[in-house]
């Protein structure tokens, strides 16, 4: 562990390819994520992959499924403040590297919001398959600094037609986190 400022733990070590690898928590939401990524870039980060969770908007997604975001609809304030317009794109090469390592993942558009609970994202953003809070801000930060950023997510929450939430269990979450982590490290090493 090299960092625990602001309660956000960070670890640095060596990746399987011999290159340095940092794993850093960003906290929740675009503002915190943008600060952390900006500071990591100032310290020398050359690529970044968000590994996180999302709520399913598409009916076919199940708990534990993986989604690779090719773009995020900017329904948050941070990405807009960073200059993004309606959508912020993930880096295509880094996204392709992730998709090669997780062929079962859904490559799709997601929506980044400021409030995870409470919005009607299915009606407002019908082309988004999932909702989360950080990707658009991270993609916008990467674009502004010319640092490639990608994103892989696991479905941690599903919602029925009445908005009743079902949450992933600890075993499924650990399995998904390990799959995402292995894919992210392999994609960064490509």
Q: Would you kindly provide a written description of the structure presented here, covering whatever features stand out?
A:
- The protein contains six helices and nine strands; from the N terminus they run ββαββαβαβαβαββα.
- Helix 1 runs parallel beside helix 5 and helix 3 packs across helix 6.
- It has one domain: 3-Layer(aba) Sandwich (Rossmann fold), CATH 3.40.50.1580.
- The strands form two sheets. A five-stranded mixed β-barrel has the order 3-7-6-4-8. A two-stranded antiparallel ribbon has the order 1-2.
- By secondary structure, the protein is α/β, with parallel strands linked by helices.
- Helix 4 links the parallel strand 6 and strand 7.
- The radius of gyration is 16 Å and the shape is globular.
